[in-house]
Amino acid sequence: MPGWTNCTVNVIINEQMGARLAQTLITLREGGELKGQTQAAQIFFYVVEGQLQATIDGQEKTLAAGQYVYVPIEKTYLFQNPTEGTQVLTFHKVYEPLEGYTVPDVLFGERDIAKAPIYMNNDALRIQELLPNELSFDMAVNIFTYDMGGHLPMVETHIMEHGLMYLEGQAIYVLDQQWYPVKKGDSIWMAPYCQQWATTLGKEPSVYIYYKNVNRFPT
Ligand code: UGY
Ligand code: MN
Asked: How far apart are the C-alpha atoms of 92 and 201, rounded to whole Å?
């Protein structure tokens, strides 16, 4: 990737597959750097492991595991001084402006279970929304925690697509008619209308971070 040096970039999901998002996992070596400027696509950066320094549109911050930054379109970014093996997950989406709304600002934040309300009255399920639920945003990124015994209350199917990565634990994911055992480090692309259901497995909670397109008319 131009401007991304001393790192390995795995492009997990991309438009070549028919997706409308890109998802990458970046593993940085010492001295690694991610330098660039967003253009038509906004980028969400989430630190999975390690730490590094971020300078986004002039704002500096050290980001450690569980912290993230949302970089809107047309902003400069620089990530540097990573600890060896730092891993960063990214979600990219071409931004669709909405008349009457301004483009969102840069936003820093972190994973925090205290900010994760219970999902659909089921106290084994918690979802933290990492981006504001506002019409200026056309993407959501959420962290979904399933405690032991937790499972989606129904088979979902919807127009929105998902890019997803497991951060902890293990689970069974049902996609259309196939059952997949999944665990920490695994990723899934769910195209629009893919039937989806999941249940946690094992003795610890399962946790995933996922992308979803939101708030725009279907084309
Ligand atoms: O937000 C969602 O659509 C979410 N409940 N889907 C999922 O976790 N597969
Ligand atoms: Mn869903």
From this structure: 30
Q: Is 212 in the pocket of ligand 1 (CB under 6 A)?
A: yes
| pLDDT exceeds 90 at position 219 | no
Q: How far is CA 135 from CA 91, 115, 146, 148, in A?
A: 19, 20, 28, 34
Report the separation in Å between the CA atom of 155 and the middle of ligand 1, taken as the mean of its atom positions. 10
Q: CB of 4 within 8 A of CB of 35? A: yes
Q: Is this complex scored with an ipTM above 0.95?
A: yes
What's the burial of 22, exposed, middle or buried (CB within 10 Å: 0-12/13-18/19+)? buried
68, 131 in Cβ contact below 8 A? no
Q: Which of 133, 152, 166 to mutate to test the pocket of ligand 1 (most atoms within 8 A of CB)?
A: 152
pTM of the predicted structure, to 2 decimals: 0.98
Q: What digits encode the pLDDT tens for the residues 47-94?
A: 999 999 999 999 999 999 999 999 999 999 999 999 999 999 999 999
Nearest alpha carbon to residue 129 among 166, 121, 120, 139: 139
Measured in degrees and rounded to the nearest 5, phi and psi for residue 216 equal -130, 155
Q: Exposed (0-12), middle (13-18) or buried (19+): which is 36, by Cβ within 10 Å?
A: middle
Joined together, the tokens standing for residue 175 give 């996609």
What is the phi/psi pair of residue 48, to 5°? -85, -40
Contact 171, 185 (CB under 8 A): no
Ligand 1 binding pocket includes 126 (Cβ within 6 Å): no
